[in-house]
Write a structure and sequence with these properties.
Helix content: 25-40%
Structural class: alpha/beta
Oligomer: single chain
Shape: globular
Distance between the termini: 44 Å
Radius of gyration: 25 Å
Number of strands: 26
Length: 573
């Protein structure tokens, strides 16, 4: 993004009338800060957004051991903050009053969302600014997280992918060469076996961190109150789950969304989706997921990533928590909800190659993002798969590599959309291997060669490549479900079938179209048997399930209440 060309949208100035409208939603009275007084620090949680009434508010960032970097000076009519102000997550930048002090009025996360929804005009201005500011932080690299490691290391790559898909700014410092990375390693006493290392914005140093540890440090994973009862818990933050969250939260239901990785699901790894309604030039899966996630946060949905659900217990009649569904995560967190929406999608299918796991993250990938594309620039690669996901990856990767070997069992016309087939046919460096499969992989610490076998002749040909992309389908992600939920032979969840007669008598109604064999537990998206494996279809099911949740909870259209945070303060006399 060209930051300089969008300054007016990045840092808009509210008019006097817009300032008066905004004041109605403030979470407190105006506060006066003395010259140079610290207002907030990097890593602080629950930092309010500030509407500047007089003076200036200076915002600055810091990367690693570098000195402070000025980001912006907010003047009168400016609204501070970025996307973290919607959720109260740790601040990625700090602020202090200007040389002549500052008077500003605070808006905590709840009241920021109230303003964004309650005033369409001001809300659009702030929401656009917050999104652009996050993009600017990512692009300019003047605030965020530092990753220190050896170039090409699989653990370092995994951290890069997680942060990228989570929409968090970071910089990578090579520990192998002289410079800041080497100096930091020496100063912190970090051994080579501790790499990669992550230095969080608040200065915390993590050695070989997991995604969960990274998320905890950055505040991506919120604290969950085990006594809170949600109207609906959505398991899975792909297109269907995020759509359900947006529609449910916008209609006043209390919502929590959980996912074991990051927002977007399989669609989030697509380099470009071109057949989604309303985007004639296409949109990347990550951009679509980011927009949907911000919409869900805007309407008040709580999002907890990355948390993996390990078990689900259906309602127990007559218990203290009668009618509630209980979820438990692998780290023993408890979530209670009146309804559950299973939108957990599917897991990438692994080929039957004995040593494939040895190269995952070190040459074998199940998605194609800019990070993977950078690793294989001007090299030969192999792509396996004939579906649309493979087609999108080929169209994205082929212009960046020397030669792309496409390995498929049957003709593309049997499995891929026509527009992608035509695009692939126009790519001069794509070599088709029809009726073939990957026979074996070889290498040491990373992938060095792939052997391809012809299924008819059994002839094998070896190609020296450093990257193999697998798009061979997926299996339903349902291992955590309670055993009483009906699935088909392939493990996908059956919906809309008749309840057991005793169950139907207990609940007083028939099963709804997207409801599983257990009342108040729904399934949408790729995890559902018979679903259409398209982003638009998943989003449609996410919207449709919300009306069925209302029916299950016995809520009529006239009973739907807006979220409590939409109530603005009364206008001044």
């Amino acid at each position: 993004m060209d930051v300089h060309s969008r300054q007016a949208q990045l840092f808009p100035v509210l008019t006097p009338l817009q300032i008066e409208v905004a004041k109605r939603f403030a979470s407190g009275e105006p506060k006066t800060f003395g010259p140079g007084e610290q207002v907030s620090s990097i890593g602080d949680r629950e930092v309010p957004a500030w509407l500047v009434l007089s003076g200036r508010l200076d915002v600055f960032g810091k990367i690693g051991s570098h000195s402070e970097t000025a980001i912006v000076s907010h003047g009168v009519g400016h609204f501070s903050g970025e996307l973290n102000q919607l959720s109260g997550r740790p601040a990625m930048a700090a602020s202090r009053a200007g040389h002549h002090g500052c008077v500003a009025i605070p808006f905590d996360a709840t009241h920021v969302k109230a303003l964004i929804i309650g005033s369409a005009e001001v809300g659009e201005i702030i929401m656009r600014a917050y999104i652009l500011r996050r993009v600017a932080l990512i692009d300019t690299g003047n605030s965020g997280t530092v990753l220190i490691g050896h170039d090409g290391n699989s653990d370092l790559r995994a951290l890069q992918i997680f942060l990228s898909r989570s929409g968090y700014p970071y910089v990578v410092v090579d520990a192998s060469s002289e410079g800041e990375g080497h100096d930091l390693v020496e100063r912190l006493g970090i051994r080579d076996s501790d790499l990669p290392v992550m230095v969080c914005p608040n200065g915390t140093v993590l050695k070989k961190p997991t995604d969960a540890e990274v998320a905890c440090c950055l505040g991506i994973t919120p604290e969950l109150d085990p006594e809170t009862v949600y109207d609906t818990a959505i398991v899975g933050a792909g297109p269907s789950g995020l759509a359900a969250a947006v529609y449910a939260a916008s209609e006043g239901l209390s919502v929590i969304v959980l996912d074991e990785r990051s927002a977007g699901g399989q669609a989030g790894s697509s380099s470009r989706i071109e057949n989604y309604l309303g985007f004639p030039t296409g949109i990347s899966g990550q951009a679509l997921a980011g927009r949907a996630l911000n919409q869900a946060l805007k309407f008040g949905a709580e999002v907890a990533l990355p948390l993996r659900i390990s078990e689900m217990s259906p309602p127990v009649p007559g218990s203290r928590r009668d009618g509630l569904i209980n979820l438990r995560t692998t780290d023993r967190r408890a979530i209670m909800a009146r309804t559950v929406v299973v939108a957990s999608g599917a897991r990438y299918r692994r080929p039957s190659i004995s040593n494939v796991s040895d190269f995952e993250g070190a040459g074998v990938s199940y998605w194609a993002t800019p990070i993977e594309a950078k690793w294989c620039e001007n090299r030969d690669i192999v792509v396996v798969g004939g579906g649309n996901s493979a087609g999108q990856a080929i169209a994205y990767l082929a212009p960046k590599v020397s030669r792309l070997h496409l390995v498929i069992r049957r003709e593309l016309a049997d499995t891929m959309s026509t527009y992608l087939i035509e695009r692939i046919a126009a790519l001069p460096n794509v070599v088709m291997h029809v009726g073939c499969e990957v026979a074996s992989l070889s290498g040491d610490a990373s992938l060095l060669a792939v052997k391809i076998r012809n299924l008819k002749s059994a002839r094998e040909t070896e190609f020296e490549v450093r990257q193999l992309f697998m798009f061979i389908g997926a299996d339903p992600n349902t291992s955590w479900l309670c055993p009483h939920i009906t699935t088909d032979r392939a493990g996908f969840i059956v919906t809309g079938a008749a309840f057991d007669p005793f169950v139907e008598q207990e609940v007083g109604r028939a099963a709804l179209a997207l409801e599983t064999s257990i009342p108040n537990i729904f399934a949408i998206g790729d995890v559902r048997a018979g679903s259409t494996k398209r982003v638009a279809a998943a989003v449609g099911e996410g919207a449709a399930v919300v009306s069925q949740i209302h029916t299950a909870l016995g809520i009529r259209d006239g009973d739907r209440n807006p979220p409590a945070f939409l109530e603005p303060s009364p206008p001044p006399n």
